[in-house]
Amino acid sequence: MSGTLQVFVPFWGDPGLLYATVDSVRAQTDGAWTLTVVDDCYPDPSVALHFAEEADERITYVRNETNLGITGNFERCRRLASEDLVMFLGCDDLLHPSFVERARTVMAAHPDAAFLQMGVRVIDESGAESMPVGDRIKALLRPRSGSTVEISGEDLAVSLLRGNWLYWPSLVFRRTWLPQRPFREDLPIILDLAFIMDVVRAGGALVLDSHVAFSYRRHSESLSSAAALDGTRFADDRRYFREIGQELTADGWPRAARAARHRWISRLHGLTLVPDAMRSPDRSTAMRHIWTHLTR
């Protein structure tokens, strides 16, 4: 098997959900893991008190001196990484008991792979299984495979730029791919895709495994959906896809560059937000942002 899985949990949110996340790591069948909660100055002193009583030496709690924001907190986690395998687990998501064992087994069987995507179950705020439109689209975009398959190069870039079907908090990275790739401060909402594309362009292969071992919590209200309605995410999307399209052309990956220019799923995402925009207090502005995203 591969070495220890180092789990980072960048925290800002509901303490109760965080504790459930930590318990899901504690319940692993394979004990070769460490867990570090990185608290981005969440204004609730009970969180620090809770972890002060933690007896498991594999679990560490650190609190940032100042609020670093999404990108800054992910960046701190990246810099703290020291084990063979690393993941950035969401502070409200859940590992299934077999996650660590499966991750170590699969990554050992694919020693040249940069990262791993296992099967994911989507849940709602209450923990019930859920499959919103966006996740149904992800399921359609995800390459079909038997059990485990390795994908890389332009084929992987095309697939992800047509529509990002990965679940970022569930990804397991080989640490050797992390040191030279800082998270981009100018892309807080799509920092995951930008980071992953850097890995893919550098030759990193993805292992896609059908074994379901992760529960991803989908909230009806999220930072990314709010950013879309105020135009922030759409503007970042357009800027990033223009930029990556130019870079892929220079790389000699014309199919991937074309996928970046068309960005059909990104545009479709805008259409799915029309009902939310119509309910927005500033409906006209939200609809204008969506229209701009669809037509530019």
UniProtKB/TrEMBL annotation:
One of its GO terms (molecular function) is transferase activity. Pfam families: Glycos_transf_2. Transmembrane segments: none annotated. The keyword Transferase applies. Keywords: Transferase. Residues 7-127 form the Glycosyltransferase 2-like domain. The keyword Transferase applies. PANTHER family: GLYCOSYLTRANSFERASE, GLYCOSYLTRANSFERASE TAGX-RELATED. This is Glycosyltransferase. It comes from Nocardioides oleivorans.
